[in-house]
Amino acid sequence: MLPSTLLFAVSTSVHASTTAPNPPTLLSQSAVLMDMTTGQILYEKNPYERLYPASITKIMTALLALKYGHLNDPIKASVNAVNQEPDKVYLVPGEVHSLQQMLYGLLIDSANDAAVAIAEHYGGSVKGFANMMNQEAKQLGAVNTHFVNPNGLQNADHYTCAYDMALIARQAMQNPEFRKIVSTKYYLWKGKEWTSYLSNLNEMLWTYPGAIGIKTGWTDQAEQTMVVSATRNGHTLLAVLMKVPLLGEMQTDATSLLNYGFSSFKESTILPAGTKVASLSLGGHQATLSLESPLTAMVPVNQKNHAAANLKMPSSLTNVPVTQGIESIRDNHSPVPLDSSMPFVHSLIIAPIAYGVEKGAVIGSATIDFEHMKMTLPVQIDKTIPVPVTPPARAPELPALSLTLVCLGFSLIGRAGIKKKKKTTTLSRAMVYPRAMDE
Q1: Coil, strand, or helix at residue 21?
Q2: d(CA 136, CA 429)
Q3: Which pLDDT band, with edges at 50, 70 and 90, does 231 fall under?
Q4: 185 is an active site residue
Q5: CA separation for the pair 61, 116 (Å, rounded)
Q6: 238 CB contacts (<8 Å, ≥6 apart)?
Q7: Mean pLDDT, rounded, for 164-180
Q8: Domain boundary residue among 381, 405, 426?
Q9: Is residue 58 part of a domain?
Q10: If you write DSSP's letter for every residue of 349-407 in order, what string do you get?
Q11: Is the Cβ–Cβ distance between 335 and 344 less than 8 Å?
Q12: Could you confirm whether 58 is annotated as catalytic?
């Protein structure tokens, strides 16, 4: 690793509205529509209002089980688990199923007994698992959330908000097994005392083209809740709706919200590939660090001349020393909305830079951080940094006379050493083998 200096662009400004015309009027007390790829919020209604989640809690339960467990883990039902209120798959004490089968019961049939069995297995107790749930929520940025159980049964201290549930659901949908389960319409449950086909409680899988999951919920206090995801033309949206009085009203709201997202927004380039994010100085060689791939976001379909035309790059750069190890450089700004004219956050992580790095090599990543949207893109170097060419070191030359005297001196010392060695050897033999005495 060789020392270098990084010139870091601390901010970029972009003017982009994410408000599309004619947003839907929803009966849901709280709602969020999120772009699954970027986490960008396309619609929000009371997104941070604390509400009861009911069974959409089980999204977090499954997320943690898949994070810390394996699909073939044996999960045993305790007395506490089987005594949970319906909905459930009617486990009996001591009944054992694989985690995979328990997850199907949890997410398709919304089984409260399966939820507690999973929680006790991985958390040691319901309370221990709830602590894990809360820790995971905070790591995901869901700071307005507090769980006390794995199934969503009513508790005054068990709450979340639409925005937090969108964060949790988006994370869960990154897991292929989770996506497979929540998109399954029917599942053959083979219990110890009964066998039946489970039918997914998320009716959007039948009523909305392109729906791929994920979970519904209901209690008297929470009323109807739903997290639903759908894909259209290769693009995926995620909607959260909370506190809707009737099931039909919730499905109408979900349909309207997803239709709004797919019809009113298009994907657009915010920062094109090749956008300069920093400059590097190494051994007198200057190079540019730029985005290898473009940063895209969803923008209203009626918006024209977006992105690059309105992009303002900074005129000054900040000097940052680069030392050994992976570098992480971040500015001091907070995330801002995508439609803000204020600078948005740039953070840059680069691997150690050394001579010989070639043009086009990916050496790190840049994170663009908006409010509700964070994208990490690879960063490449736009110039080869050559290895310095230095002449080989030469031994110092001695005058001919001095060299002769040195050689002569070594020769005399060598001869003296040989004579001394021979004399010592003779004496030693005389001592070891004395002559016989005359009688």
Answers
A1: coil
A2: 86
A3: very high
A4: no
A5: 9
A6: 33, 34, 35, 36, 166, 169, 170, 173, 227, 228, 229
A7: 97
A8: 381
A9: yes
A10: EEPPP-TTPPTT-EEEEEEEEETTEEEEEEEEESS--PPP--PPP-PPP--HHHHHHHH
A11: yes
A12: yes
| Domain-terminating residue out of 244, 259, 290 | 244
How confident is the model over 381-400, as a mean pLDDT? 68
Catalytic residue among 4, 30, 45, 58: 58
Euclidean distance between CA atoms 428 and 329, whole angstroms:
76
Residues 350 and 275 in one domain: yes
Q: What average pLDDT does the structure give for the chain? A: 80
Greatest mean pLDDT among 243-252, 289-298, 346-355, 364-373 = 243-252
Task: Count structural domains, the chain.
Answer: 2
pLDDT bracket for residue 300 (50, 70, 90): confident
The amino acid sitting at 404 is T
CA–CA gap between residue 38 and residue 175 (Å, rounded): 16
Could you confirm whether 383 is annotated as catalytic?
no
Catalytic residue among 110, 229, 264, 290: 110
pLDDT-wise least confident of 20-29, 52-61, 378-387, 412-421: 412-421
pLDDT reported for residue 346: 54
Structure-block tokens of residue 427: 């004496």
Q: Which residues face 41 on adjacent strands?
A: 34
Once rounded to an integer, what is the mean pLDDT over residues 410-415?
47
From its phi and psi, is residue 306 left (phi > 0), alpha (psi between -120 and 50) or beta? beta
What's the average model confidence in pLDDT over 386-402?
Answer: 60
Which of 4, 28, 30, 55 is the catalytic position? 55
Closest CA to 201 of 181, 177, 185, 220: 185
Q: Is residue 106 part of a domain?
A: yes
CB 320 within 8 A of CB 40: no
Q: Report which DSSP code applies to 194.
A: -
